[in-house]
Amino acid sequence: MSFSSSDIALILLGYLSGSVPYGLLLARRARGIDVRSAGSGNIGAANVARVAGAKIAIATLVLDALKGVLPVLLAKRFETTLPAELLPSLVGGAAFLGHIYPVWLKFKGGKGVATALGVLLAVMPPVIPCAAFALFAAVFAVGRVSSVASLSAATASVVIGFVHPIAPGQRVLLVLLWAMLFWTHRSNIGRLLRRQENRV
Q: Residue 87 sits in which domain range?
């Protein structure tokens, strides 16, 4: 297995797409707020909702998802010698890592939930992202705790991915997304154990 120059360029493009900090940019432009210095300090939609309002948070959620969707859709239009679905999975994984470790913010980014959902929408069979989103919405509606909803949805995605027939590369991507989401939420998990987690 070898990577062509176009494969590498698409993976890099995925990372750069994921690195765009829409929550930070939108909140700063609309409210003059640096979300890194307010609320939880996170650049994602949940913290944007706390410090800048629902409308900006929804825009952040959509744009953070799209930066996972669009580079993957572009990658699917290119021919590659890699196994089927591997290049889209790599590009999606790079976009996800770009959100968590953005080059523009000294590699200190968000937790990756919306971008992970965008990657799932573009890479996986529809049943996986749809089930993940439905579970997220249900858990969030009941408890209003974004971290619990996110980790529940991530875990459900992995379970469905091992039941539903998908390519090995897709399955590896699911597990990596799940593991990284638990890693980025480690402080939230600590607060949950202490019963100090913030509600949205």
A: 5-193
**Any idea which residue has 């993957």 for tokens?**
72
Number of domains in the chain: 1
Taking the C-alpha atoms of residue 71 and residue 17, their distance in angstroms, rounded to an integer, is 7
Q: Residue 144: inside a domain, yes or no?
A: yes
Whether the CB-CB separation of 47 and 31 falls below 8 Å is answered with: no
Residue 124 placed within a domain: yes
Q: What is the DSSP string of 65-98?
A: HHHHHHHHHHHHTS--SSPTTHHHHHHHHHHHHH
8-34 pLDDT, tens digit each: 999 999 999 999 999 999 999 989 999
Which residues of the chain, if any, have pLDDT below 50?
Answer: none
- Judge residue 45's burial from the number of C-beta atoms within 10 Å of its C-beta, 0-12 exposed, 13-18 middle, 19 or more buried: buried
Q: With beta carbons less than 8 A apart as the criterion, state whether 99 and 19 touch.
A: yes
